[in-house]
């Protein structure tokens, strides 16, 4: 049988994909991160499904649950918040399933940065202003960043930076980006994107830290820093331009 790694989306239960919901509804076993995945999603599971909250399980215990279900001939829905492609710890699970000979598939989901952009009503790429988005995090005690991927280095590009898992360290973020982006660079923080308790903070690189601390935001947030967040005067894209010849490739 198959393990399905499903992106549950950023928070709102109805932001799971149609494919993800269909697989969830057909899987007799569901493993989910109870601290991050909305409980409403579990209503999509079969009434008699075995539900396993992985919030307090380590990687070996999680793998054992997946292998056990496979051995019993049961498909497994492994729900991850956001999208499995970034900051999801899916790689280490897939590696262990490869070793155990257990087949799996990945069902993409709506990532947190996309939900944050929607909340801000912003396109993150703007013609002639910015066409590059950097998704990253900062070094913490648990996991160091690879050489050359620190904020001071990435900030030299001037591209829009999207930071996950960094709200608790907002002062560090500001200090490391100020030399490259300047105090007046548009900055936003979206916490609990797409959820009823969503928090949206808008400001500049110089003002955002105080807003974050005043709002009590320390987790489940995305920090965005870049010129495209404040772009108002820019050239229309070529895609829908009246001057474009639509009869050629």
UniProtKB/TrEMBL annotation:
Gene Ontology molecular function: any one: precorrin-4 C11-methyltransferase activity
Signal peptide location: none
Domain of life assignment: Bacteria
GO biological process: methylation
Tetrapyrrole methylase domain boundaries: 2-208
Keyword tags: Cobalamin biosynthesis, Methyltransferase, S-adenosyl-L-methionine, Transferase
Enzyme superclass (EC): transferase
Pfam family, one: TP_methylase
Family of the protein in this entry: Belongs to the precorrin methyltransferase family.
Protein name listed in UniProt: Precorrin-4 C(11)-methyltransferase
Gene that this polypeptide is encoded by: cobM
């Amino acid at each position: 049988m198959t393990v399905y790694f499903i992106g549950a989306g950023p928070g709102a239960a109805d932001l799971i994909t149609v494919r993800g919901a269909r697989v969830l509804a057909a899987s007799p076993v569901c493993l989910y991160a109870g601290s991050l995945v909305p409980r409403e999603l579990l209503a999509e599971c079969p009434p008699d499904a075995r539900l396993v909250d992985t919030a307090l399980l380590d990687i070996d215990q999680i793998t054992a649950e997946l292998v056990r279900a496979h051995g019993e001939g049961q498909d497994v829905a492994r729900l991850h918040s956001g999208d499995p492609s970034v900051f999801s710890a899916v790689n280490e699970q897939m590696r262990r399933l490869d070793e155990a000979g257990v087949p799996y598939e990945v069902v993409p989901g709506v990532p947190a940065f996309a939900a944050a952009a929607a909340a801000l009503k912003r396109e993150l790429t703007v013609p002639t202003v910015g066409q590059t988005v950097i998704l990253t995090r900062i070094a913490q005690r648990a996991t160091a960043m690879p050489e050359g991927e620190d904020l001071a280095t990435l900030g030299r590009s001037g591209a829009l930076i999207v930071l996950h898992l960094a709200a608790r360290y907002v002062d560090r973020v500001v200090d490391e980006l100020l030399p490259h982006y300047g105090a007046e660079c548009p900055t936003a923080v979206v916490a609990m994107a797409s959820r009823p308790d969503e928090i949206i903070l808008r400001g500049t690189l110089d003002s955002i830290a105080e807003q974050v601390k005043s709002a009590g935001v320390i987790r489940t947030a995305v920090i965005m820093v870049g010129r495209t967040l404040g772009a108002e005067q820019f050239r229309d894209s070529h895609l829908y331009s009246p001057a474009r010849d639509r009869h050629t490739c």
